TrEMBL record:
Residues 1-19 form the signal peptide. Residues 28-50 are annotated as: Disordered. InterPro entries: ABC_transpt-TYRBP-like (IPR007487), Peripla_BP_I (IPR028082). This is ABC transporter substrate-binding protein. Keywords: Signal. The lineage of its organism: Bacteria, Bacillati, Bacillota, Clostridia, Lachnospirales. PROSITE patterns: PROKAR_LIPOPROTEIN (PS51257).
Length: 350
């Protein structure tokens, strides 16, 4: 009897000890990411209580991320998204399956189909091809896009109201095209022919080209489109473009962004300047751009994901968001090489 009593006492103490450890793990404060300091401080003030609640219930959210290709802008958007959710949910409560499609649309479809089979809680589609692949793969799992120029074009929506009405929402990386045209005219008022260079496989690039041409023609420019199918014919198309253009405009285009070295090596020796639709392209081969922060854009997308996953926001009625700020930026080395002086309100790309 004494032995039985002793054994019972040990078992009771062990159970109490394990229960105490479990309680400590479930109430731990969420981990914070240093990179997440970029967004406004109001994020911390409005979400800390909810984040603690999520950590306490022990739910682990599985997020599938399909990124079209590796380059600076898309990488920053993905990082911002991950930092936001890690901060808001707690590091122990979110798992990311990050897959890169290496620029191939078919690979995007394979990746998102795997996410659907795994029944992830949410899919992040970073760029247009992943968004289209995700839209084709599921109408149930919430999908958020980022680095998408125009959702109506990407999803073939005729009557655009700002929401998709489906399981899709997200953020747009479109900087105001009228202001980009203003920038081109500010720097090159005497130019006559503007060549617009983009990948024909990217519908959002075609949208940007068609839209900005209206603004450029208002300034009296003659505009000609030069399109390449993929990276294999960029060099020949760029050579054709510089033969008849005074300045080139490259919209936000993933294929161009991945091949700026080729473009730079052709355009700079020929003395042809480039206005770029985003900072990554400008850093590689441009002279100036109207820049947004892709990190901030991704962070905003992560906040949207939190609202959908935790607070029950209806993704079908969640409005597509845009970058809150734009900045005039210039490539100091390229401007110096081409003898271009920019106004004082431009900021050098670091």
């Amino acid at each position: 009897m004494k032995k039985l009593a002793a054994i019972s006492l040990v078992l009771a103490m062990t159970a109490a000890s394990l229960a105490g450890c479990g309680s400590t793990a479930n109430t731990a404060a969420p981990a914070e990411s240093e990179a997440a300091e970029t967004p406004a401080a109001t994020t911390e003030e409005t979400t800390d209580t909810s984040a603690d609640t999520v950590a306490a219930d022990g739910k682990v959210y599985n997020i599938g991320i399909c990124q079209l290709v590796q380059h600076e802008a898309l990488d920053a958007a993905t990082q911002g998204f991950q930092d936001a959710l890690t901060k808001l949910l707690g590091e122990a409560n979110v798992k990311f399956d990050l897959q890169n499609a290496s620029g191939d649309s078919a690979t995007c479809a394979t990746i998102v189909n795997q996410f659907v089979s795994s029944d992830v809680d949410l899919i992040l589609a970073n760029a247009t091809a992943p968004l289209q692949a995700a839209a084709a793969a599921t109408n149930e799992i919430p999908i958020l896009g980022t680095s998408i120029t125009d959702y109506a074009t990407a999803l073939s929506i005729d009557d655009w109201t700002g929401v998709t009405g489906t399981n899709i929402s997200g953020t747009s990386d479109l900087a105001p095209l009228d202001q980009q045209a203003d920038m081109l005219h500010e720097l090159f008022p005497d130019a006559k022919n503007v060549g617009i260079l983009y990948c024909s496989a990217e519908p959002n690039s075609a949208y940007q080209s068609q839209t900005i041409q209206g603004y450029l023609k208002d300034y009296g420019y003659e505009c000609t489109e030069y399109t390449f199918a993929d990276s294999n014919d960029i060099a020949s198309v760029v050579n054709n473009a510089i033969a008849t253009s005074d300045v080139l405009y490259i919209p936000t285009d993933n294929t161009a962004a991945s091949n700026t070295t080729i473009i730079q090596n052709i355009c700079q020796p020929a003395g042809i300047p480039i206005i770029a639709g985003e900072e990554g392209i400008c850093s590689g081969c441009g002279v100036a751009t109207l820049s947004i922060s892709y990190y901030d854009l991704g962070y905003k997308t992560g906040e949207m994901a939190y609202e959908i996953l935790v607070n029950g926001a209806d993704v079908s009625q969640t409005a597509v968001e845009f970058a809150p700020n734009v900045t005039k930026k210039y490539n100091a080395a390229n401007c110096e090489a081409l003898g271009i002086t920019v106004p004082d309100d431009y900021v050098a790309i670091e």
